[in-house]
Amino acid sequence: MNDQPYLSVVISAYNEADNLHRGSLNVVIDYLKEQNFTWEVIIVNDGSSDNTSSLLHELANRHSELTIIDNPHMGKAAGIATGVFSAKGEIILFSDMDQATPITELDKFLPKLRSGYSIVIGSRSGRPNAPLFRKVLAYGNVIMRALILQLPIKDTQCGFKAFTAEAGKRIFQIMNKITPPRVISGPAVNPGFDVEMLYLGRKMGYKIVEVPVSWRHQESRRVSFVKDAIAGLTGLLLVRFRSLTHAYKI
User: Residue limits of the Glycosyltransferase 2-like domain (predicted)?
Assistant: First the structure.
């Protein structure tokens, strides 16, 4: 494979044995093998306590395009940052292991990237089959993002996003300097991570576009209405505070 692939797919994995047994990563590989560009997949094992690491290394032994990085448990944001800094591709795509948004939706992203957009993000219209509280959270987040950050993006939280390598690496360099990764315990979802990433991208002048994508609801033990609502608002206020205090030195 070319040492400088066109596409790098980055996935942060925490206790993903069930999804791996269901063949979610095989679906990604099968799709990419049908494309006419070079690619790599970087999976960052976020200190999983199940057998995610061994399953990933077994797959990597069969597919040379896979790179497995074993991190201590630092959360999804740190896992994605690790993958971004290791990526060699011209384009970097973030995707979730459960494939809630299928990898085939990349077909909608590539024309946008080739036409000059630096950041392309998936937008989940209506969120079919999602519980009511998730839809309420999503609607509330849209309003609060507009009020607090003037960020005109409908869906910041979809786990399917693509960046040019230049944009992705610059954004994550700033984010890592502000919040250096650290070892944590227990499940960690940081809703402010996606907002900060996109806020920085817009502040830095990168062209951003939302693209409607297919999405299917996946149950998660890591979701709590009250905790997520508080965390979401806290994340927005923190980004605003950092902006006002000139923490984002670009």
Answer: 8-162
